[in-house]
Sequence to fold (265 residues):
Amino acid sequence: VAVNDFEGFTLERHAHPVSEQEVDAALERKRSDNTEFVAILDRDTPARSDVIEVAMTGRVGRHKVDRPRMMIDLSRPDLSPLPGLADALVGLPLGSQSHLVELVLPNDIDQRELAGKTARLSIRILGAREKVVPALDDEFAKDTGEADNLPELREKVRARLRERADQHVQNEVRAAARKELVKRNPVELSPGLVERGIDSQAERLRAQLGMSGLDIGDDYFRAAEMRERLREPAEEEIRGQLILEKLAHDQGLAVTDAEVDARIA
Fold:
């Protein structure tokens, strides 16, 4: 690996200002994090504001689904493991044992492997809980242990969001720099190294899909079409790693114990 062209190029740093709406949303998430979950004993069906615990089996396309225990927040359909699933469970009797749900997944979902597929699922409700969300007031601010009143908590949340936005900007610039280095410094990769990189990409994808309860078989990731789709991002990732390692070596860059301690902290 030779890294000869690594200076004198321009990168754009995009601004990510923190809006009042983002602060409001973060405070709502903090309220949600401090929610109490009370078992429902006086109703036969869950409401839109409840959380239910289900067992789910079936298939999405040809992919098997088997989740013996999963929490689904009916008030947050955007966090549902599959689009439309939370909506399909609102009002379902709490004693349901083998309720059949059929969903046609949209074509524009993030999980491209599931786009347009039909999900056929058997749902068993294991339990349901009502969410008791604390009021957003000075008392809540004190309960968090972060502030003495709501305005102080709001400022601390804003500072945290600003720090996260700055880190996002930094990550964008790092990614752009790595991409430019790869473009300027061609690196030949052995077929075996590329295949291992594709394996790594496939495992990450499998883990992401597993979060939705999908049991993706090995045959799916061994398919030539799937591996070819993962080839380009795998090659770019490997080239970027090799170039950065070589550049660090050539420039005598080293990480101090203090820097490691600071990152851990």
